[in-house]
Amino acid sequence: MIKTLFAVAATLVVAGCAHRHNADPHAHHQAMHHSMAATQPAPLAVSASQPMLSSGYKKVAAPADAAVYFVNLKNGDNVSSPVRVQFGLKGMGVAPSGVEKAGTGHHHLLVGVDSVDANAPLPTDERHRHFGGGQTEVMLDLKPGTHTLQLMLGDQNHIPHHPPVLSERITINVR
Questions:
Q1: For 56-79, how does the pLDDT look when each residue is reduced to its tens digit (9 = 90+)?
Q2: Distance CA 16, CA 27 (A)
Q3: Rounded to the nearest 10 degrees, what angle do helices 2-21 and 27-37 cross at?
């Protein structure tokens, strides 16, 4: 009787596992590895946004429903360089830098950035990519390895809105 129960239990375990492995014996294990590798990166440290700066500059207000997001990438994606990065925006419009128009801004791509001053113009360098022409995508050359990406909307002077409009911070793996 114990032998029979053991045989039935072993058959159920094998049968239960077989449906996951019949097409690709490694798919289940790759999926488990991918889900472990796709943990959400630590959030970006952003200073408290002030509606008016000490200089007297009144920051552009962001509507409550404003959201910026990655159209074609998600956390944990494995990609090849150059990486096509498409920017999405809802609740606001895109306008080039220098154009002052309510409810608009332009994209900034933060690459490996851990903190941002929400009350100062975003720097311009390899880690803070500006799209002041109103661009909504880029082909990004990245070295192989793991990179964090995040989008941030800036006003006509590259200053984050109040409150800041940020995408999810994602990690991609470049082959």
A1: 999 999 999 999 999 999 999 999
A2: 15
A3: 70
Residue 85's DSSP bridge partners are 138
For the chain, the farthest-separated pair of C-alpha atoms sits apart, in whole angstroms, at 85
DSSP for residue 107: E
Strand partners, 173: 78, 146
pLDDT per position as a tens digit, 111-148:
999 999 999 999 999 999 999 999 999 999 999 999 99
Hey, which residues does 130 pair with through a beta bridge? 108
The Cα 161–Cα 155 span in angstroms is 6
Q: By 3-state DSSP, what share of the chain in percent is helix, strand and coil, each rounded to 5?
A: 20, 30, 50
Task: For residue 72, give the H/E element and its range.
Answer: none
Strands 145-154 and 170-174, sheet pairing: antiparallel
Average pLDDT for the chain: 85
Which has the closest alpha carbon to 51: 149, 131, 130, 155? 155
Contact 153, 68 (CB under 8 A): yes
Q: What global pTM score does this model have?
A: 0.79
**Is 99 strand, coil or helix?**
coil
Q: In the numeric block, which tokens belong to residue 122?
A: 């975003």
Distance between CA 80 and CA 92 in Å, rounded? 31
The residues, ordered by sequence, that sit 6+ positions from 128 with a Cβ below 8 Å of its Cβ are 108, 109, 110, 111, 113, 122
